[in-house]
């Protein structure tokens, strides 16, 4: 491998992972960092030219990678979401798309100065909101499930539809004058219909075939993931033989079929696919932006800037407003959807190919299609990437603005813990399979969730739960471990805790390995039986304020005070665990949630009453 290829591998892989980590650490949109890194390495420093290094295989590789992204996105499209978001999804995919195409084409002609042919092509390209941008942003935001469903379905469904629309517009523009409307009716239109039918059929047939193999145990575990990826790429290739864009439709429908046919054993595979897609998105954004030719940037002008502003501030909001007239969507929903519409990789890929073909056909201003689309992509990623979460919070479309806790197991002491944490300003939801056990908590004003957290219904409920941390606090240590292991990919392995299995030395615990359980809550000896006994003896949870006067006492261990949680107002909370490498020392202003004996609990209660 030559030095250029080695440099590409090093810069793209290491740079992509570094950008993802920085984005996670400082709560920034990763897409913006990846986009900026690509511009820096490519047009900026002139050190990375992917198409020159990879050659003619560059664009086919990009297309296959996009197929995997839309396939993984299709697996997130569950028809059960239609119960709450069906009307909005239909309006965004069936009405808003053609409305935005007409408005975008008019803006390109009257504002951007493009002739009608390239203007219509531009309008058809910018109707899509790319899943390569939307899905990573949704993973970072804590949107309400209904609003998240709107953006997810629009991005994933409109991507292949927009690609097919752009192909259709291009074919019509490239028709010879002597062909007339007959060629469209007898040639192009039937091809589009056949391509759509075939691509949808391929996707459904692929999903059905996978289900038969998995249900009948005809596929070994180690081949299931390679099979899904191979079929997604194969269906994309078959669909693309009929028409550009049909392959994306086939891959998307394949993912949707797997999600809605309830194919067993997909949960574990889906987690691996999500990780793979994160890597693919990182690579694609760096490669595509690094491959931008300086000529594209040189063609950026004031008319293109005005067109970009028109698309963002007029076309999209007006299109959403017109498409949702008479709907049940609230004004907050409509404002949010009218603003958030980042474009991604598919728009860039389609613009690059289509713009060149129009230029070669002699269309005036066709060379400005790619710069105009690039300007929209860059502007929407920057503006929408940084504004999505703040705007959602301002419009009250997020689940929670502060870190929250899911507490599994409604025992007397866990209910007491939930009540004290809620009074201290931390949202807590108490989860249990027994409705009767949740009655006292509900009467005390604690949010409750009656479900089996390991079931499919529990997984659906979890999506609507504003929780960032989880504590499994049932009497069954094995069940607690199963809950933590099952939900670790959702919360993060460092954010799932369970009551100690009841052994003083964790290195001697043989019940469950560390990978199959959560972090121990508090100290190893604080098992469920001990906590339940102490509660019966009068111990209660109490919120202790760390002040300058009490700082010294709270910094020292005390056998009459079992500290479980440390809350830092305005910054979240941390859960104490003996398995942490280093225990976080309390600071003045913190609130400690501690289990204290009867005398201390009574004194604290009297102080609260007197205050």
UniProtKB/TrEMBL annotation:
- Database matches in SUPFAM superfamilies: NAD(P)-binding Rossmann-fold domains
Where are the coiled-coil regions?
none
Give UniProt keywords alphabetically.
Antiport, Cell membrane, Ion transport, Membrane, Transmembrane, Transmembrane helix, Transport
Organism taxonomic ancestry: Bacteria, Pseudomonadati, Pseudomonadota, Alphaproteobacteria, Acetobacterales
Protein species of origin: Acetobacter musti
Name under which the protein is recorded: Sodium:proton antiporter
Compartments reported by the entry: Cell membrane
Membrane topology per record: Multi-pass membrane protein
Q: Which residues cross the membrane?
A: 6-24, 31-51, 57-77, 89-110, 116-138, 150-176, 188-210, 275-296, 302-323, 335-356, 368-386
Q: What is its main location?
A: membrane
């Amino acid at each position: 491998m030559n030095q250029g290829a080695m440099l590409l591998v090093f810069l793209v892989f290491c740079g992509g992972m570094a950008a993802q980590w920085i984005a996670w650490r400082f709560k920034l949109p990763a897409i913006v960092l990846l986009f900026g890194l690509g511009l820096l390495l490519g047009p900026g420093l002139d050190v990375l030219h992917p198409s020159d290094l990879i050659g003619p295989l560059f664009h086919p590789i990009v297309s296959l990678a996009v197929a995997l992204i839309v396939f993984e996105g299709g697996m997130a499209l569950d028809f059960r979401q239609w119960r709450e978001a069906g009307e909005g999804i239909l309006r965004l995919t069936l009405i808003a798309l053609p409305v935005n195409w007409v408005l975008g084409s008019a803006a390109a002609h009257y504002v951007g100065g493009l002739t009608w042919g390239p203007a219509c092509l531009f309008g058809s390209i910018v109707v899509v909101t790319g899943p390569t941008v939307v899905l990573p942003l949704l993973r970072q935001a804590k949107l309400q499930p209904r609003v998240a469903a709107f953006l997810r379905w629009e991005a994933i469904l409109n991507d292949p539809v927009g690609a097919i629309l752009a192909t259709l517009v291009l074919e019509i523009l490239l028709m010879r004058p002597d062909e007339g409307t007959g060629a469209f009716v007898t040639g192009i239109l039937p091809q589009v219909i056949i391509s759509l039918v075939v691509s949808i059929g391929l996707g459904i047939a692929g999903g059905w075939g996978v289900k038969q193999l998995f249900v009948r145990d005809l596929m070994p575990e180690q081949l299931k993931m390679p099979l899904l990826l191979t079929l997604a790429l194969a269906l994309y290739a078959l669909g693309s033989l009929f028409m550009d864009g049909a392959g994306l439709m086939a891959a998307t429908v394949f993912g949707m079929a797997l999600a809605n046919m309830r194919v067993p054993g997909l949960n574990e595979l889906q987690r691996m696919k999500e990780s793979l897609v994160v890597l693919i998105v990182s690579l694609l954004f760096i490669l595509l932006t690094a491959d931008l030719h300086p000529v594209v940037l040189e063609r950026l002008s004031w008319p293109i800037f005005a067109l970009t502003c028109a698309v963002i501030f007029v076309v999209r909001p007006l299109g959403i407003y017109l498409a949702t007239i008479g709907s049940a969507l609230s004004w907050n929903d409509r404002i949010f959807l009218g603003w958030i519409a980042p474009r991604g990789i598919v728009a860039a890929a389609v613009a690059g190919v289509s713009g060149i073909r129009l230029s070669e056909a002699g269309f005036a201003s066709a060379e400005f299609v790619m710069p105009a689309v690039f300007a929209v992509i860059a502007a929407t990623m920057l503006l929408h990437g940084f504004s999505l979460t703040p705007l959602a919070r301002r419009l009250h479309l997020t689940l929670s603005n502060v870190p929250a806790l899911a507490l599994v197991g409604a025992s007397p002491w866990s209910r007491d813990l939930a009540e004290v944490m809620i009074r201290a300003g931390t949202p807590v939801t108490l989860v249990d399979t027994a409705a009767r056990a949740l009655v006292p908590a509900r009467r005390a004003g604690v949010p409750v969730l009656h479900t089996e957290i390991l079931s499919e219904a529990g997984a659906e409920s979890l999506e609507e739960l504003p929780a960032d941390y989880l504590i499994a606090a049932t009497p069954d240590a094995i069940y607690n471990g199963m809950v933590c292991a099952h939900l670790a990919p959702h919360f993060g392995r460092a954010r799932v805790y369970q009551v100690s299995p009841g052994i003083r030395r964790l290195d001697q615990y043989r019940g469950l390995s560390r990978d199959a359980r959560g972090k121990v809550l508090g100290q190893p000896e604080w098992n469920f039986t001990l906590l339940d006994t102490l509660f019966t003896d009068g111990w209660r949870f109490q919120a202790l304020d760390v002040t300058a006067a009490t700082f010294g006492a709270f910094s020292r261990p005390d056998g009459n005070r079992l500290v479980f949680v440390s809350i830092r107002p305005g910054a979240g909370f941390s859960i104490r665990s003996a398995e942490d490498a280093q225990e976080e020392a309390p600071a003045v202003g913190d609130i400690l949630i501690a289990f204290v004996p009867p005398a201390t609990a009574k004194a604290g209660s009297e102080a609260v009453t007197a205050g």
